[in-house]
Amino acid sequence: MVEQKRFALFLATCDSTFVKKTYGGYFNVFVSTFGEEGEHWDLFRVIDGEFPEEKDLDKYDGFIISGSLHDAFGDDDWIIKLCSICQKLDDMKKKVLGICFGHQILNRIKGGKIGRARRGADMGLRSITIAKDSVKPGGYFGDKTPNSLAIIKCHQDEVWELPESATLLAYSDKYNVEMASYGDHLLSIQGHPEYNKEILFEIIDRVVGLNLMEQDLADKAKTTMEDAEPDRKQWQTLCKNFLKGRTDQV
């Protein structure tokens, strides 16, 4: 009998009313994007101080750290605890996929530099350039590595500088680090492979309603998705290849 694979989501944001009503919560968004039949997925609301026991970490095959409205360079108790857990997972060589806030957290624990985005916040559909010289043929991207991929972006912080142990996998004209790997067990992505158009638009409307974004910027962000879509299938394949250990990158 094949042993059931186990994964955990470290949810670093609260479920919006819209996401609860439409999807039953962000957990379901992540599992439907990255999960497969026969797997067991657990949810830990790390933003509320909910973490697995350290003795249970080895039970899992992989972990995902979600995005967050909080700063990955912050010193809130739960962020410090998350960093500590991630350092243990790094020592254990466990697979960890970091998305947005999670992307920055992984860089933080590996000794890189993170902070407020130097060229300003970004929201909308963007094309990022793949650093093809750093990508191994047959790695996470599969047999054919694309020159670029479209992904939904929604962030005000960024990775300023990668540590020596990191491999840069993607960049853009606005941000130097869009995706990176650290060995074969840590993968980080600044954009949101799990987002779709309706999730993004609801976030934009909510942010405008809270007076955290000007209406003209919100309109521009929505315009990016008028005639284009993210490369969701390719992102799914890439992330699944990594999480399930189907291919190595280095």
UniProtKB/TrEMBL annotation:
Protein name: Glutamine amidotransferase domain-containing protein
Keyword Cell division tagged: no
Recorded metabolic or biological pathway in which this protein acts: Secondary metabolite biosynthesis
MF-aspect GO terms: peptidase activity
Cellular component terms (Gene Ontology): cytosol
Keyword hit for Hydrolase: yes
Organism: Brassica carinata
Taxon lineage: Eukaryota, Viridiplantae, Streptophyta, Embryophyta, Tracheophyta
Keywords for this protein: Cytoplasm, Hydrolase, Protease
InterPro entries per record: ChyE-like, Class_I_gatase-like, GATASE
Localization of this protein: Cytoplasm, Cytosol
Protein family according to the UniProt entry: Belongs to the peptidase C26 family.
